[in-house]
Amino acid sequence: MSSARGTTRQYWVALKAMVVFTVVLGIGYPALIGAIGLLAPAQANGSPVAVDGKTVGSSLIGQSFTNRAGGALPQWFQSRPSAAGTGYDAGASGGSNQGTESGTLASAIKDRKAAIAKSDGVDPASIPPDALTASASGLDPQISPEYAREQVARVAAARSLPRALVAQLVERFVTGRSLGFIGEPTVNVLELNIALAALDPSN
Amino acid sequence: MNTTLLFVLQLGTLILLLGLVYRPLGDYLAVVYSTQKNLRVERAFYRLIGVNPGSAQTWPVYLRSVLAFSAIGVLALYVVQRTQQILPYSLGLPPVEPSTAWNTAISFVTNTNWQSYSPEATMGYTVQLVGLAVQNFVSAAVGIAVAVALIRGLAARRSSTIGNFWVDLTRGVVRILLPLSVIAAVVLLLSGVIQNLNGFQHVTGLTGATQTIPGGPVASQEAIKELGTNGGGFFNANSAHPFENPNGWTNLFEIFLMLAIPVSLARTFGRIVDDHRQGYAILSAMGIIWIVSAGLLTVLESAGNGTASQLAGGAMEGKETRFGIVGSAIFGTTSTLTSTGAVDSMHDSLTSLGGGLVMINMMLGEVAPGGVGSGLYGILIMAIVAVFVAGLMVGRTPEYLGKKIGAREVKLASMYILITPTLVLAGTALSFAIPAVHDSVVKTSMANPGLHGYSEVLYAFTSAANNNGSAFAGLTASTPWLNTALGVAMLLGRFLPIVFVLALAGSFAAQEKVPTTAGTLPTHRPQFIGLLIGTIVIVSALTYLPVLALGPIAEGLK
Fold first, then answer.
1. Proportion of chain B above pLDDT 70, given as a percent
2. Where are the transmembrane segments (chain A) (predicted)?
3. Any B CB within 8 A of A94 CB
């Protein structure tokens, strides 16, 4: 058998193999997982969260709590800064990709720090790092418990609610590490804000 | 809880999980690639494609099969991307632009999974599934096949053949990757990773603003992406996206998936060469590098040096709250040491020295434990070099596992080692040296100015040539120059080493085994493990120190 013919034959074998693999792995396998997903519809469809039967988002996808111009709405707990599109755009996930020596990043952090210190009436040095930095996905659904606690006074004042009540609510929404050491303690901002709205009689 | 304890507990959990699967999975892999028995479905498949599973191939034929299959893979993936608009579930997206489609086709076939595009805005579901997911499986299976062929060569005596590629490929998919992916995908799905065909849904959020909720068959993709050390994200944010990696536990699970097969292959190796101590020696070298590197990155990121990190009070830029610094550091280390290239934090925003460290991880040649298959054959080449170096020191003909390391073997191993650095250094240098290209790189591609911009380009070529696929993601890589040059780097960085590995397999297989004597260097003792680690570190340090000094080191010391 000539080597050229052997080589051509290899390509023919490869082509047939690729077609079969494509059907089995590209269609069969995801279809099987999709079928299993029917048994866990909440997870398969993105863990939706509803208020009064209406979906307002996903517990896994962070949201902005800002006005049209991007200004923080004081009556809501704020999510982290986001580099996804104009902020929490799930059609354009991603981080800022600014290096730590980037001047752009440094000045953004300074601006955020000043803005939060002013709106929340706190010492700039006490603001936790997650409040000042954009996440990797731009869709981080959570903030650190420290950042949530830091916002209590502002939120309570904006809604004329007792500060202790709001503080209590935050503590209820603090999720610890699983098994005590996996992941980090967090507060889910959307879930916290939904509970906050339910608490507020003026809402 | 303090960072040290957290790191020890999380890393310890991973080591425990890996310890549990090491023997059963490694032994299972050895059986899969040694048995003469074929499953009924495999026999039907061999009949259909016209392969006789009983016929073993010489190394040149084995190589031609690898190349033919990969070439068809590139072609198929290119065509699927270019015809996206007529395929179902394209989400209304146009055909992928030619240079990006070419780059992506190579990227997924070479198990690199470098992404010069933003997936949400470029790839519909059909391309993701029948294009990318398929290559996630088969490129991984090709890697394992080549590694197994090399092990067979080391174990064989006076044999002209090294196995049958089509059989190795099929078994890798049918008996290993597919069943494990199904299990992993179900675990991820139940933990919150989505699996649907919903497209982008728009809901009214709490403040009345519109919120987009993306859809997609993500769980199935995510499972094989980590298990096959592929790393190409369904979303632009990759494993930082909450729909790919929803919580701290899935983060740990995904790290485990990346490590499971590359680590267990050390056991497979020990079993096939019939000396488990050899497997443990390889495993130790891999494990020590991985643990040290993960510890170092955790220290560097926790220290949070650098202007912006210090202003913010911690290096949280580009990191997710739920993973924190420890979860992100272990993930980043594992991903860059396994040639996966998935990210759960943005490497571009790591501290300067942290960014340098993940680059060094890749520069070590992806051997600790490396990609599926490619990691094992990579470290076996390093072992051969280590034996050779030791042989020079004592003036004896070096042997590894009873095989003489003669002139031919050393030449092949040396060429293997030279390919990747050549691609990295030449690619980076040309990006700045060619005047026409220089402008496009500096003005269009680099996101950060100066030293860090240079690091972005160096990272890109390191990642491509080592078939890792992670990025300093600020870099805009979808320019004609970078799409083309990185495509070439990925292609040569994958297949030239495979040529040399298979040639070595053939050359070892043909040899008789020389008996062990008092003068034989034992290759299972701590002394050899140290020698092996030394060889890995020194070879890459000598090669890359100057280019690192220009980038991350200069940045970090500024």
1. 100
2. 12-40
3. yes
